[in-house]
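Lecture 7, part 2: worked example. A protein chain together with FE2/S2 (inorganic) cluster.
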Amino acid sequence: MEGYTDVLSAQALPPGALQSVHAGGELVLIANLDGEIHAIGATCTHEQEDLADGEIEDGCVVCPMHFARFSLETGDVIEGPATKPEPVYDVRVEGGRIFVGPRRR
Ligand code: FES
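Predicted complex, written out as C-alpha cells:
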C-alpha cells in the first residue's frame, strides 16, 4: 500500500482503546471507536499533551490535561480550551494490521 505506514496490530487496539504511533514523521492517535478505527493528530493543539493518555467519550477524545474534546471523525474541537483542530489521516485495516495513510485535512 503506497503511502501507508503499518503502525499497529488491530488486535492490540480493542474498542475504546487509544494509541499514539509514529507515521510519516507525525505523531498520530489511533482510536477504536466501537470497532471503527480513526486516526487524528495525537498532540493536543492546546498545550501539546499526548491525547493517547485521554479517554474516548461520545465520539471524541478528551485531553487528560485540560479536558478539551476533539471529534475522532473530523478532528474538530468540540469543546475548549483548545481552539485549533487536529489533522485527520486516512486509515485502513488489512490482514489484521492498521495502516495510516496521507493526511485528509
Ligand atoms: S493540553 Fe489538552 S486541553 Fe490543554
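The chain has no helices and ten strands. Residues 5-103 form a domain with the Rieske Iron-sulfur Protein fold (CATH 2.102.10.10). Keep this in mind for problem set question 3.
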